[in-house]
Amino acid sequence: MAADPTALTEVFEFESIYRIAWTRLGPASAPPLIFIHGTPWSSRLWVPFALAFAASHSVYLFDNPGYGESQTSGQGTVEQGKDSSLAKQAASFAALYRHWKLDRPPHVIAHDNGGLVSLRANIQHGCVYRSLCLVDVVAAPPFEVPLFELIAANEEVFQQLPLLMFEGIIRSYIRNAAFKPLSLAAEESLARQWLSEDGKKGFIRQLVQASGRHAEDVITRYGEVGASGIPIKIIWGKEDKWLSVDRAETLQSMIGGRTEVVLVDDASHLIHLDQPERLMAELMRFVLAADK
Fold first, then answer.
1. pTM of the shown model
2. How many helices (H) and strands (E) does the chain have?
3. What are phi and psi of 228, to 5 degrees?
4. What are the pLDDT digits (tens) for 127-144?
5. How far apart are CA 142 and CA 185, in angstroms?
6. Cα(45)–Cα(67) distance, rounded to whole angstroms?
7. Could you read off the pLDDT of 148-196 as tens digits, one per residue?
8. Can you give the pLDDT at residue 72?
9. Is the peptide bond before 40 cis (omega within 30 degrees of 0)?
10. What is the DSSP letter of 115?
11. Is residue 62 within a helix (H) or strand (E), and if so which, with residue range?
12. Non-local CB neighbours of 218 within 8 Å, separated by 6+ positions
């Protein structure tokens, strides 16, 4: 059986305890492009898009600390996730960005709280981009998410739930992110990383520490990203039940600059699965234009 070209075969250690699994595919000399995932996902959500872009770009995929293949630390424990804040996720991404020693600014495509990670990395850590595409991202208020707040207020209760009961919550939560019914294979791929005792602890930790306070110190500076002159595109599913579509225009006004907004019909938060062809077309059109 041929090896999976998107398998995260490389490892970068950040601050000695954070283990980040990553890979690169496509021609090494091509323009670099980075995909960033959000919560509770992993880089697997971006795989079909990474494979398509690998024909023309040097594509970087990675799992944020505490997610997917990056769930264990250099010591082989899951304790690395003890700081799962978006501030720490941004710092780890910025360190990985520097580790790659890119020969030119990359295109960055981010989903969910990967949006805030990418914005923080640019504003606070000096990561320079060729273009930035934000897909149904956590970046504009309001930041309150009912499940996040419920778990944060009752963390001990959720930690004590039997794994089978917790699995039901995970699967229901994931299904709610899609406009169209998910296939069993898609649901399994998205849920698998959390369906163990360690996974349960990690998921709860991620949600407890995912807070809007990690936007407050940068949210007034989004205009700096727009003022840099890079092409910026915001793509949003019109039926997003997690992050309402009005946030797209709010974010556009906050960033300013050359920010374009595209709203996609019949798509919710998992636009990758609801409207993959439309998302692919929008991403390709944007990145190829930004290459010129």
1. 0.94
2. 13, 8
3. -70, -20
4. 999 999 999 999 988 776
5. 33
6. 12
7. 888 888 889 999 999 999 999 999 999 999 999 999 999 999 999 999 9
8. 60
9. yes
10. H
11. strand 58-62
12. 116, 119, 120, 123, 124
